Amino acid sequence: MKNHSLPRLDENEAIRQKLLSFCRLKPGEIWRDPKREHKIACVDAADSIQVQELMEGELATLAIHDPPYNLVAFETRSVKEFIFWCKKWITTTSAALGDNSSLYVWLGADQNDGFQPLPDFMIMMREFREFSSRSIITMRNQRGYGTQKNWMAVRQECLFYVKGNPIFTVQYTDIPKVLRGYYKEINGKNTENLERSKSENIRPGNVWVDVQQVFYRMDENVNGCYAQKPLKSIERLILASSREGDLVLDFFGHSGSTLIAAERLKRKCFIADNDPVYCEIMIRRLERFRRYGKTGWQNSNPFQQELHGVEETEQPVLLELW
Ligand SMILES: C[S@@+](CC[C@H](N)C(=O)[O-])C[C@H]1O[C@@H](n2cnc3c(N)ncnc32)[C@H](O)[C@@H]1O
Q: Where are the domains of the chain?
């Protein structure tokens, strides 16, 4: 089968412009899921009026944000401007989160530029007294850069903040526990590490080495998207910090990984992107997942019919409804 991939849309403005004519949402508009209660919104995360329109008075348990950093959008902007902008969407997020809720923010740290914007973002967050810091998760990428004169850069950071006292459910990896000989006295009995275990597998902790970065051979790959987070990473956050039926937010949706993860885990998701093309990709990704059980487009792309005249070749499947 011929591979109909799409180039990175941030580097191909001509194609992005062409795709705009296939988009159901215009800036400011919201798509309401006819099957469940998800919403996909073409709104600016920093605009409090637009975010209020999206929320319609509902409050979320969890927000997972992955803002653009070190990307075209901020190439010409200073760290100061970036942080000023972050303050705005942290304000809209805070208003959209309930009293006992969790906030995760994926953020880069440029090792060639004072590790920005991570340190200034952390300092800025201290102004938001309603949020307390909980952890920094580091996820290991498989691909890296800068191997000859430096340690290969393979890390992605995710900051974890909480409001109040939210739910937290311990998660486990697929990696079997092998540590033996770690003794501890429990109720007067000397117990060995594996006897005390709640699981045969180890916990991920806050350094994740077991998540595969998305690449073109994976089912969940969405051609055209350039910043896709692995479903496994988002599902781990959702499972730890929400319950079934809870509302999960993502104001920088892009490929819609948070939406698909929420759908699979029976959470409701309000997801936004200020670009109509990514909103359309998210709607199509959800529709395709429901129809064919596919989480992405491994050998094709969300616009294969319009761009290449290629019909869908997957067989429809019956997914369990919730
Ligand atoms: C790093 S990507 C997010 C990737 C996403 N986590 C995924 O797994 O696909 C950032 C996204 O934020 C969107 N964006 C940039 N500025 C925005 C704003 N002010 N409001 C909403 N979305 C914005 C961009 O269009 C881009 O798609």
A: 9-162+209-307
Pocket test for ligand 1, best of 215, 254, 271 (most atoms within 8 A of CB): 254
What average pLDDT does range 268-274 have in this prediction? 98
Q: Residue 68: which of 77, 60, 56, 55 has the closest Cα? A: 77
pLDDT band, very low/low/confident/very high, at 192 (cuts 50, 70, 90): confident
| Phi, psi angles (nearest 5°) of residue 270 | -110, 120
pLDDT of 293 strictly over 80: yes
Structure tokens at 107: 């953020």
Locate 252 and state its tokens: 């920088």
User: What are the Cα distances from residue 244, in Å, to 82, 153, 190?
Assistant: 34, 36, 38
Q: Measured from the CA of 234, which atom of ligand 1 is nearest?
A: 8
Instruction: Spell out which residues line ligand 1, taking CB within 6 angstroms.
Output: 44-46, 66, 68, 73, 225, 227-229, 251-252, 254-255, 257, 272-275, 278
Protein residue whose Cα sits closest to atom 7 of ligand 1: 228
Query: Which range has the worst mean pLDDT, 37-51, 214-228, 242-256?
Result: 214-228
pLDDT in tens, 100-128: 999 999 999 988 889 999 999 999 999 99
Token pair, residue 17, equals 């412009």
State the DSSP string of 162-187.
EESS--------SSBP-----EEEET
Cα–Cα distance, 219 to 2 (Å, whole number): 16
How many Cβ atoms from other residues are within 10 Å of residue 53's Cβ?
14
Looking at the predicted structure, is the pLDDT value of residue 267 above 70? Answer: yes
Domain at 9-162+209-307, CATH class: alpha beta
Average pLDDT, the chain: 92
